[in-house]
Amino acid sequence: MLIRSDWKNASQFHDLSEVEVLREVARRVGEAKSRSQKPIVLLDLDSTLYEVAPRTHQILVEWMDTPEAREFPMVVRELRRLEHAHVGYSLKDTFGALGLSASNGEVDSALKSAKAFWLGRFFTNEYLRHDRAYPGAAPFVREVHGLGALVVYLTGRDAPGMGDGTVENLVRDGFPWEPATTHLLLKPAYGLPDLDHKKGAADFIRSRGELVASFENEPANLVAIYEIFPEAMHVFVETVSSDHAAPAASGLYRIRSFE
Ligand SMILES: [Mg+2]
After folding, report:
1. Do 115 and 185 fall into the same domain?
2. How far is the CA of 35 from the centre of ligand 1 (A)?
3. 109 and 152 assigned to the same domain
4. 236 with 157, same domain?
């Protein structure tokens, strides 16, 4: 089981450009249609179709104005330089990108304070509106949908806390959203493990058609779906990922953007 760059280095990806990978997905959608199968394209949301850095950025800006944050003047001073490019998977990654190491006592205390503030906001409809679709993501999903694919958005977001905001964003950003030809699979409750939720979607997918491709930024989720559907394309979207370990895999696809 490997983490982040170790997983990437140990895994084997087809040597194709972004455009070639996306064209191959579209080709296979058409090919499945020609065999009278219902092609399915499975898409993760956070850090796959959507950049969530602006969501975290907004929350940190608000945290800096809290009375609690005033106890950490050095950290707040450094955080004033924060740009979206600094925002990593976790707040620890984000602080680290600004040179703030948790081995420093003030940084460690500030991280705990900011994390508690962030946790109360990040997984909510209200803050979802700060997310931005990655360039090219919506046009690509519209393309495969137009070719006849069933589009399934499979996300670790929970229905009670984030369902409404998720749909609002999909519509706002021009992603396909139609009752019969798109599905949004949210977790029924916050706190259920993402991996179990994503593996649990397999029966739903099998009952609807033939999985052509999945897109995912989390190695553990990507490999889990790959193991269930080895004949489909599995596309690693190389943005940010957690430090959850995953087994190395071969025969994967990789894109860094949808452009
Ligand atoms: Mg994700």
Report:
1. no
2. 31
3. no
4. yes
Which stretches does DSSP call E strand in 69-224? Answer: 132-133, 150-158, 182-187, 210-216
Query: How far, in Å, from the CA of 214 to the mean position of ligand 1?
Result: 12
Model confidence pLDDT, tens digit, residues 103-161: 999 999 999 999 999 999 999 999 999 999 999 999 999 999 999 999 999 999 999 99
177 with 91, same domain: the answer is no
Give the CATH number, domain containing residue 154: 3.40.50.1000
Is the Cα torsion angle 257, 255, 158, 194 positive or negative in sign?
Answer: negative
- Residue reference for tokens 């190389």: 238
161-201 pLDDT tens trace: 999 999 999 999 999 999 999 999 999 999 999 999 999 99
Give the position of tokens 């994967």.
252
Nearest Cα to Cα of residue 204 among 229, 221, 223, 177:
229
Boundaries of domain holding 221: 4-52+132-255
Main-chain dihedrals φ then ψ at residue 240, nearest 5 degrees: -125, 155
Centre of ligand 1 from the C-alpha of residue 80, in Å: 27
Q: Mark which of 98, 128, 158 sits at the end of a domain.
A: 128
